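Q: Got a minute? One more chain.
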Amino acid sequence: MKILSRYILKEHLGPLLFGQAVFTVILLMNQVARKFDELARRDLDPEIIAHFFVLTLPFILAVTFPMGVLVATLAAFGRLSADNEITAMKASGVSLYDMLTPLLGAAGCLTLFMIWFNHGVLSETNHELSRLEADIARTKPTFVLREGSINEPGGSGNYRLVVDRIDRRSDRLYGVRIHDANDPALQRTIVADSGTMGYSANGRDLVLDLHKGTVYELKLRKPSEHRALHFDRQQLVIRNVGSVLERGQDEDDYRTDREMNFEQLLAEVRAERVELAEADSAAVSVAREELQAYLTGA
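A: Always. Here it is, folded:
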């Protein structure tokens, strides 16, 4: 009987692994298709993107594991039936209960494993994924300068950039015009023959190094007061333009129900019951006071 049990379990193992792998790859590719473009636009490190998809795997496995078990059961018993092996087992005195006993034992072990997996692994990875998604949502997309069009780098300042030509090999800009709209009472425009663009050491601030240009300033309330300042070289720094992922602090430990293990869910239920009881008690007290006031007034 031990040989028969091992044989039946062996027949399930191959289809289980195959079905699990196929369904996992399909759902993972679906996640990649839905999320990769958004993550890539924010210019995140490859390690962050890979970490994001690794964190989605536990949720996918929790869905695909029962699907793999179903495929394994159908494939194994389908093959045994097609090859008349089930008929041969029954003819040899093996009952259906004897054939199902090892599978019921394996199903019990898999059930315990999935309970542990959902309790310990899935809740924590869901919480970590939720925190990572919130951190990514706060990350601004990388500013990409396009020639011949109005560019708005964003960040802390209100600037608009127009560049006639960009030499991609040397990263040099030609025909640079910058409109500074930070002061509503002052119209300020910077015109430069050439320049370069880069980021500061912290990766956040956009640094424009301009050469041979003029700064035109015009007070809107007093148009007669205008001036032009010529320069050979000027550096303009626009703050908080780069995309730097900042991870949230661990103190913010709010969790949804999908991010809680069994103990946390039970604690949440108990807290909600206490809060509901307090609300009911307060409502009863208010009703009594209102009734007492009504009777006294009457």
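A: The chain has five helices and six strands.
Q: Perfect, thanks.
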